[in-house]
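Case study 2.
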Amino acid sequence: MNPPPVASNARRGHSGPMAPPEDLRWPTYRPTGITLEAAADEHPNGSLYVRAEDGRRYLDAVTGIGCAVLGHGHPAWARAVADQAARLASASGTYITAPRRALERALVERTAVPDARVFFANSGTEATEAAVKLALRATGRSIVVAFDGAFHGRTLGALGLTASPAYRAPYLRCMDEPPDDRFADVKVLHLPFGDEAALTRAFETHGDRIAMVVVEPVQGEAGIRPASPSFLIRARELTRRAGALLGMDEVQCGFGRTGHWSAWTAIVGDRADPPDVTWLAKALGGGFPIGACLARADLAAAMTPGSHGSTFGGNPLACAAALATIEIIEREGLLASAGAQFDTLRAIAAEHPIEAVREIRGAGAMIGIDVGERGAAIGAAMRARGVLVTVCHRTTVRLLLPYRAGRDELATIWRALGDGLADADG
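Prediction:
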């Protein structure tokens, strides 16, 4: 079959041939000039390094924004995906498959929601959409409470929960914004993150209309900011009293990232009743796209046949990847190693202090290093030194390393950070 013809410059009124562009993506991503090609080396437990097209090797502290928790090219994970691909790769959600059934059970046993039922999606934002739809149907109410600094996704429903007005314009307007001519109005109320008094006042004003309070136990895009136990416990008390739901968005902070399967468990433990709904993605597939929303069985019953669905959600291939990820995490003791990363970096920082670092925040393998307004420049300088990081909230170097990364990798990152800051100061 011949490829479709490519328009030439002559057809567009130009005289010479048109050179193909280097990057055909929408310009929604800031270019870095790096084209990644493969894991940098073979490793029996997954490589922590990636190789670029030009042959350069990088320590990967981005991991697809927290997805490749096993590292790259883990042989057991790759075999599980390949074996399932050869057996059955796709099946409608109408039908049960063995990988789907096994993953449902594994998630119910490991997350904080009691007697949960599972809806599978393909991403975090889709899992957020499922949670919001469930809350509105199950409660018959119309308002969702979210918090400043939050990031819950970029589809229209999830975008209403996401805090940044820059993300929401020109698409939709929330309750706490003045009227304008945006595409849609949504009944989302944003409150200061961690402000128990503001949350209490919101329930005094809107309590009988609030369907759900949505919290990231550790905010990612806001600069890695864990919620306090008292704030989460207060949110549980208020929602329980008002008949509203408490939803935990653990897309970035869940599935082992804090050293526990559930970030709620890591922060609150058994000091309060568990949340009603929680949702996951990123780490869940070990690098394969999958999301999941878990809700109490009595709430999930509101989602009658046809009320929601997904063509690819819960496909056998994604479920096999997630099951392999769970098995490897448990077999290799990766919850413990993930949980140790934050304290290990703080110890390195105490031994080799960097004056320009304002704060180190986080939990487990979710770490933010606050370097002030030079964040973007420091991120670029670290890339030049062979370390891939993201910078969030303009000020914070974010580390989302594979779970087995340890002191050697964290020391490498700390040196690259210090050298980058020195260059910026010089």
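The chain has two domains: 36-74+333-425, 77-331.
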